[in-house]
Amino acid sequence: MKKGILLSLLAVSLLAGCSGGGTQNANSSSGGQGEGSAVELTFWRPQASEVEDNVYVKRIEEFNQANKGKIHVKMEVITRGNSFAYEDKINAAVASHTLPDVLAMDGPNIANYAASEIIIPLDEYFSKEDLDDFVPSILQQGSYQGKFYAPGLNESSVVLFYNKKIMAEHGITPPDKIENAWTWDDWYDVMKKTSKDGVFGTNMINDKGEWMTYAFEQLWISGGTDIVNKEGTTAEGFVNSPQGVEAANFLQKLANEKLFNIDPKPTEFEEGKAATKLGGPWNIPGFKNYPDLEWGITYFPKKAGGIQTAPSGSWAVGVSADTKHPKEAAEVIKWITNKDSSTQLARAISMPASRKSAFESLTEYNELPLRIIKEQVTGVSHARPVTPAYPVLTQKFAEALTDIMVGADVKKSLDNVASTYDEEYKRNFAE
Amino acid sequence: MRNTRTKLLLYVLNFIMSLLFIIPLLWMIVSSLKPENQIFADLSSLKSLLPLHITLDNYRSAFERIPMLKYLFNSIFYVSVICISGLGVNSICGYALAKLRFRGSEFILVSIIALMIVPFESILMPLYLVVNALHWVNTWFALIVPFIANCFSIFMFRQFFMDIPNEILESASIDGSGPLKTFASIVVPLSGPVFATVFILDFISHWGDFMWPILVTTGESLRNIQLGIQTFFTLPPIFYGQIMATLTFTTVPIIVLFLLLQKYYVQGITSAGIKG
Amino acid sequence: MQTAMNAHKREHISTFSRQRRRETLVGYSFVTPAVLLLIFFLVLPFLLAVVFGFTKFNLLRPDKIHFTGFDNYKLLFTDGLFYKSLWNTLYFTIIVVPVQSGVALMLALLVNNSLKLRNVFRIAYFSPVVTSMTVIAILWISLYNPNEGLINSALHFFGISNQPFLRSSSQAMNSIIFMSVWQAAGYQMMIFLAGLQGISKDLYEASSIDGANKLQQLRYITIPSLYNVTVFVLTITTIQAVKLFVQPYIMTNGGPENSTRTLALLIYQQGFQFRNAGYASAISVIFFLIVVLISFSMKKFLRDK
């Protein structure tokens, strides 16, 4: 009896394993015969806003038109939600070898997917010139161990929004030249002055998740360090370096002195209840609902004497290792990230473009306030760490910062990030 | 006289408690009727529960953005199939475990209780492999079949059936009815509240399905209402008014179901024959 | 005579055993559909998870899965976070189970009567169960807001200073407990209510003729009649409590300082976010064994009473 169970168990695990071996590829990359003799490709991307989705639909339609009889792309939009559901679906598809030919992925996952060999390098399909047109942070986030895997469709950035009325009340003029950008101390003084009568000095998202790494890793970079080394092999001496401790101390000070609301309403800044807001271009469309709000943009604050930097990162597209048509799949990638696509997307969703050339026609970025975003994106931005153990890093880092903001011991929390990360890396990625 | 006093006391207690429990539902409904800017502006005061600026805009724009009725229909369809087939499969199983003596029944019962403990997160991936091996990905089967048999339901049926006095069952079997007939004609009519409760609890748990449908469905044709709602969470800036409108809209079917099932909660069992 | 009696006896025994055999057959046929489905879609996946527990299995590298014996278990027993999560899970369970079941029974008694508005009250108590957890989380995070939350305003009224609630490692779990009891009591109330509906009215009538008051009826009729239902409610409340996931996942993500990290959250994080399916499976197995142990000692305890 027991043997029977064990055997049938083995049988099924084999079955599951085998069906993984490529016997059935539910997602049609083996189909091949969609329209006449055209190569049929599947493309997964997470659902986004309606306008963003529409740009993709339009661009893919145009691609199919232009490649009639040769390549036909079928785009499938996957529900994403706030959680990691899209990533979980990718995991399941990897385990059962049902990945699509082309897939979208969040920037920090690229290294992870590249290290796991579920996406393939695209160097041979992009000319040097073409690659150089991407803003540096896109190349940084898309590369792993010297190879380029996945270009981004747009960029993102974090800036400091400010409430003009509140600034005027206190006689504060936020800088509009990058060399005058506020230091942490300048920003702290502003918060100190403006924080009273139910108004907070600043507002920042506090999602206990990806935002923490996305936004605050830059405080480490500004201090001349990072949260892991360049190769991504260790966090010891980086995340918990003296500069790191200083950065974390700064955040803790803001929280201690209640200069921001630790569980803010999403519309605190819009309602005039926060003098500044650490946020991104995605916030701008929502400001329209608040006609009383007069807002401006200034640079992401830097450490006094430190490096001027800003967060960056975006969704990118890559070719799955399961595809039978890498060349055609790469054509799709090139199309969906070319100058036209990048420009159209940037215009539709008011996020900065991923290509330098795209900014040529995006004239609104030549003037304030958007000029600030462009300067950050094309000049000083840094991508998040490129490491296959990123999921552990970001989770532990976010947990540590969340704890630090409510008073946990700074050094101990950061040491814990370092040791957890190093163990994970050693166990799973060091070869 | 004493009776009215008890009644009054019950009413007062119930009113106070109800207020405490109904707040989020009320907040959700009221917020769905408010203009976007008002929802969070009112959040930290009692105004958040008062519909001062009523508008149906949130509903209108929510319906424009996703095929809500189609997703709603999908959800109602597959969840109902799970629950209805579940009632049959689980109730006879629970009945056998409660009232029939056979070798291994104790073992089965213990195993069922033990299996309830397995967290869904830990079998999610292996279950996906099984369903994938059956070629069920992207079909209704994947959403329905794995969840028909349900340990909670079986155990609940079993516990309730235990309380049915053996005498009634024996008298039925003396009458010569077969076991299935005894079950259908004696047990089921006596157990309206249990069936109703199992149905609604099972329905609620699958109504909230999110993770599993994402894994096993890709296209739009099988998308359920929970996945549809996610549309409203993905667009920054997020419009909470629309979120509240869709959430309100998806809560309504459960409340309706609850009201429909209430008729099975007929006060007390009056039949004289079943005094234990 | 002798033989006749024997024959009679034999016949009696054989009807008896025939009946036994028939009952066995019916029993098996009744349980088969459910058991088969459970084997395929619950037992089998779980056994696969048990197998994975002995492997190193990165979800993104299914091709590189390999057996590592008890490595995951060795790692597990030296993982401080595992012990912390285990303790948090047990703490939550020990408090939530009696409190929530008690509140549920009370609510069920409140609405098990002929009040005209009883359906309204039932819906009210049940409404947190059917309301989306997202709504509940948004609302409670703002109620618990350390700076301007409604609960803190209420405390001010009584001269108590601001409390950090979810933002404090000593208060976060208790805040989640309080909210969970409130959120889920309606669920168990429904089950108790179904149980109360099954109690024959005659019992109450007979006892009130004997001069029993309401309290005595509760003590001597209602509570004993609910024995099987109570066992059920306590069992499922325990099982749901040990699987605590959604509330900390949405409201605290396990923090601050891991004070709300539960085993289910740890399993999810390791298995999905970190993609260490092997390690996550090992945690699941140990978790399973621990809970089985607890449930059976609890069952014994209930039986002894």
Search tags:
A: 431 residues, alpha/beta, D-Maltodextrin-Binding Protein, domain 2, four-stranded mixed β-sheet, 16 helices, 12 strands, 43% helix, C: 305 residues, two-stranded antiparallel sheet, 13 helices, 2 strands, palmitate (chain A)
Report on the structure:
The complex is a heterotrimer of chains A (431), B (276) and C (305). With 431 residues, chain A is α/β, with parallel strands linked by helices. Chain A has two domains: 181 residues, D-Maltodextrin-Binding Protein, domain 2, CATH 3.40.190; 196 residues, D-Maltodextrin-Binding Protein, domain 2, CATH 3.40.190. Chain A contains 16 helices and twelve strands. In chain A, a hairpin with a 2-residue loop joins strand 4 and strand 5. The N terminus of chain A is likely disordered. By secondary structure, chain B is mostly helical. Helix content of chain B is 71%, strand content 0%. The C terminus of chain B is likely disordered. The longest helix of chain B has 32 residues. Chain B is built from 14 helices and no strands. By secondary structure, chain C is mostly helical. In chain C, helix 3 crosses helix 7, helix 4 crosses helix 7 and helix 10 packs antiparallel against helix 13. Classes of the chains: A alpha/beta (431), B mainly alpha (276), C mainly alpha (305). Chains in contact: A-B, A-C, B-C. At the B-C interface, helix 1, helix 4, helix 5, helix 6 and helix 8 of B face helix 1, helix 3, helix 4, helix 5 and helix 7 of C.
